[in-house]
Amino acid sequence: MTGNHTDSTITRRRALAVTGGTVAAGGLAVVGYQSAFADTAADAEASASASATSTSTSSSCMTLMTSVTEGPYYLDGALVRKDITEGKSGVPLTLRLTVVDATDGCTPVSGAAVEIWHCDAWGYYSGYTTANPGGSAPAESEDGSTADDDTYLRGYQIANANGVVKFETIFPGWYTPRTCHIHLKVHTGGQKEDGTYEGGKVNYTGQLFFPDDIAEEIFTLEPYSKHSGSYTTLDNDMVYDGGGTSSGLLTLKAVHKADPSKGYKGSITLGVDPDAENTGAGGGGGGGTPPSGAPSGAPTGTPPSDAPSASASS
């Protein structure tokens, strides 16, 4: 990994739909857990504590999170489930995301549906497994997993009374020319149906980012190390605008400080406007057209038409 993408022709495009502001990151208490996917009483207490804190300190998160393009790899029909890995290998990552109403004192948005999707350890997205991630990587089919090529590393969770959702996944890899990231949307007004989420509207479209030092350490480990090439740092990314938490930079806590392969827990608070609508399909990402300089094999046709079956839901 060189730490910088070498293609100087890439425009640092900022597809911003809402002005970013300061949003307090959700608190995270981890006591005596044995894996990155462990649910504990401490997590539940942290959820309630974070909710109470964000409500009582509303001035710290009254402005909206930065909203950006959904990117070229979005697919409809993701399943409602907590564990989205489907056997994909990688460093474990538990995400704890708190959705609050930034227009109403940062009160929790109970029932909000948070949808996430991201690439695997080698930079491949489900539904687009032949898209070249750049650099040198094995074919996606060589990973040895039994993951469904149309659904892996995609899913929804419904926010609890404290506005909190939790996902179990893996640390994403990277693809040229992007830095390591996770896509997300916050939906309200819909409902779970046939294993997925239907109706309502998208209030927020964004991306979550990772500190460079942690990402680069992860990428020296298996299976990430099998993907070689020039990794794009945050400063050189075309979407991340340097705003820290308000721009989607996750707060990460290692499961075992001496062994990054044991995984991480990531948290952030998403300040949204439940009355607004932002699909992220405009502003350059287009939802199906890769950004300038995207991988040469990126999809240009129609995404798979078959919706995931409800039986695959966990």
At a glance:
Helices cover 7% and strands 22% of the residues. With 314 residues, the chain is mainly beta.
Tell me what you see in this structure.
With 314 residues, the protein is mainly β. The protein is built from two helices and nine strands. It has helices spanning 41-56, 212-218; strands at residues 92-101, 107-108, 113-117, 154-158, 164-170, 181-193, 196-209, 251-254, 264-272. Strands 1, 2, 5, 8 and 9 form a five-stranded mixed sheet that branches. Strand 6 (181-193) and strand 7 (196-209) form a beta hairpin. The longest helix is centred in the N-terminal third of the chain and has 16 residues, at 41-56. The protein is globular, with a radius of gyration of 18 Å. The protein starts with 40 loop residues before the first helix and ends in a 42-residue tail after the last strand. Mean pLDDT is 77; it is low at 1-59 and 283-314.
